[in-house]
Amino acid sequence: MATDQRGRMPAGAQLSDASGIGRRGVLGAAGALAAAGGVITAARAQAPTIRLGVLTDMSGPYRDPTGPGSVACTQQAATEMANRGFTVEVIQADHQNKPDVGANIARQWYDQGVDAIVDVPTSSVALAINGIAREKNKVFLNSGAASSDLTGSACSPNTVHFTYDTYMLAKGTGAALARSGGDTWFFITADYAFGHALQRDTSRFVEAAGGKVLGAARYPFPATTDFSAFLVQAQSSRAKVLGLANAGTDTSTCIKQAREFGLTRNMKIAGLLMSFMEVHSLGLPTAQGLLMTEPFYWDLNDRTRAFAERVRPRMPGQAMPTQVQAGCYGVTMHYLKAVADMGAVQAKADGRAAVARMKAMPTDDDAFGQGRVREDGRKIHPSYLFEVKAPAESRGPWDYLKIVATTPAEEAFRPIAEGGCPLVRS
Amino acid sequence: MEDLFGIPAPLLFGQLLLGLINGAFYAMLSLGLAVIFGLLNIVNMAHGALFMMGAFVAWLLLDKLGLGYWWALLLSPFIVGAFGVVLEKLFISRLYKLDHLYGLLLTFGLALVIEGVFRNEFGSSGLPYRIPPELAGSWDLDFMFLPIYRAWVVVFALVACLATWLVIEKTRLGAYLRAATENAPLVQAFGVNVPRMVTLTYGAGVALAALGGVLAAPIYSVNPQMGSNLIIVVFAVVVIGGMGSILGAVLTGFGLGIVEGMTKVFYPEASATVIFVIMVIVLLARPAGLFGRA
Questions:
Q1: pLDDT at position A25, please?
Q2: What is the pLDDT of residues A338-355, one digit of tens each?
Q3: ipTM of model
Q4: Which of B264, B273, B275 to mutate to test the interface with A (most CBs of A within 10 A)?
Q5: Which residue of A130, A203, A317, B8 has the smallest Cβ count within 10 Å?
Q6: How many domains is chain B partitioned into structurally?
Q7: Which residues of B touch A260 (CB under 8 A)?
Q8: SS3 B279
């Protein structure tokens, strides 16, 4: 189970299988731990080696937009940053969207020499690991979680939150819809940290634009398969906009069933965290016209297209990378640049110093272009409001979105003073 | 607009109806489980995975062979049922003499393997499957829009449940089956091929799961975890109804669908838990379940 590869994954794939299979079972956590425990014994002789652990959803509802694709993109960055005086090793595990499982793996990884944990979708898991990285003075490079608390009340000098957050998503979609007449909202919300944060942040923009929130239904996550009861409640609220404060298969099932129940006749649907992966799963005839906010889309410009073409051979099913997966690439590139800049030995010894160096250097990668990491750990870049194309507009597979509006980097994210991050001195 | 319990009456009726529709799925699935448990004494944890396979076979038939919903409704139960027969022959048949727990563990393992294979092959985010054009659209019932397809699901599930019940309780074949569970050697002595009958019963239970999967494909997302999200609830339904009781499985399936639907109106956060609360109460008061024979 040891991994000494640079940018390749066979041993890690085994690991994720072991933990993936146990997902529903009582044995899952034990299996994942046993697997994770055996990982890091082999490559100790080479020095210095930067060890990256991609901790992600390999078996649940977020697998496609994160999962193996996040591993592939992290490995792509490791490959592109090879030969800088240190080697890079990428391992992976499945956190099964459970904070306890994720926290156990993270502790074990950090104790056994992993320098940075990458990705970690599912806010509840990310918040747990945020604390562990700080306690052990390691690095946490988050791409997949959305809760804006990671750079707000829970901000940490050991964490960089890269791709998006609930504030950015809420502002991108919520504010845009509220401005164009969608002034009454009903939310269907996943009942955990992420859903609550997304609903809270969106409500704020809706109300700031003069709109009103008429109601919300919080459904148990991840145990809900049928959303019709909530959709009918939304319909009878007579709100103009249905806000979906959820993600992954939950969002696509909601959209599918909303069409079935005729909600689209008099309501606009706002998938507050969506990527083209959900569009891919719904099909353009069902998804056309939906609005979504993303900071990355493969067909944005020459650099994003070049990045997508480079990484695709590694991707499961040769899929295009999603925003979260591209974020794993971007954040790993930037971390490894900081490591190269300060020296691998020092970066390994002091996670806080490595993150401080990341904040001191401007970012630049093919997926997100130029940007920077703020003092609170927030990476900033422009966000784009996309509309899903009609089937006739699409030129082929993966051609799903067109840009409707762009929010510049400095406006896309929550102003640093408003987040309540204790690291920020006013 | 009148209010009942502080909720507008139309909304309440709508939710009752929706609960009934979800109950139809519970009934279809718990029926298959009850048949398998009642006649084979196997706690079939693979039922959810086989339900998922039913939906995937429908998608594959459409995507690879161009065969639409109606063909899938016919073919998918046969294909998945045949797969079930192979499973029974290869694995499950070896466990009849052992404790229930072995069957439970084996089928749980099979479920994980099947799910894992589909997840590797098709990813987790689901595949598009559209409502057949004949059943698209919805009726305006004043208190809600009822999608025609959902009405179809309820009617179809009721017919399937009734037919299964009739076969087992009222036909000669059903009598053989029931007799074989009581005393297999005796039935065999009368010239009935009991092992084959048991294999086919498992196949039929699996086919019911697959049928549920095809019915679910157009309204849920067709994804590898669609079965595992349902299976635990369905087990609770079977336990509440009484393990092995066919009528119990069907009635509790519909009943609990309604209870869950109501919970979604009054306190949605508890909608995933309410069935298990009921299960605990029923187990305390009637350990054999509402319709079970102790």
A1: 40
A2: 999 999 999 999 999 999
A3: 0.78
A4: B264
A5: A317
A6: 1
A7: 131, 138, 147, 149-150, 219
A8: helix
* pLDDT exceeds cutoff 50 at B197: yes
pLDDT value, residue B119:
87
How many other β-carbons are positioned within 10 Å of the β-carbon of residue A383?
24
Any domain includes B134: yes
Size of interface A-B (CB pairs under 8 A): 138
Range of A32-41, A329-338, B12-21, B58-67 with top mean pLDDT:
A329-338
**A262 close to B (CB below 8 A):** yes
Distance from C-alpha of B263 to C-alpha of B181, rounded to nearest angstrom: 38
Residue ranges of the domains in chain A?
Answer: 10-164+301-380, 167-298+382-416
Evaluate whether A10-164+301-380 and A167-298+382-416 have a shared fold: yes
CA A251 vs CA A273, B197, B225, B245: distances in Å? 8, 44, 15, 37
Give the pLDDT confidence of B2-30 residue by residue, as tens digits: 566 666 777 778 788 888 888 998 999 99
Chain A interface test: which of B125, B152, B277 (most A C-beta within 10 Å): B125
Looking at domain A10-164+301-380, which CATH architecture does it have?
3-Layer(aba) Sandwich (3.40)
Whether residue B257 is contained in a domain is answered as: no
Q: Is A283 on the interface with B (CB under 8 A)?
A: yes
Q: Which fold has domain A167-298+382-416?
A: Rossmann fold (3.40.50)
A94 touching chain B per CB within 8 A: no
Residues A402/A393, Cβ–Cβ less than 8 Å = yes
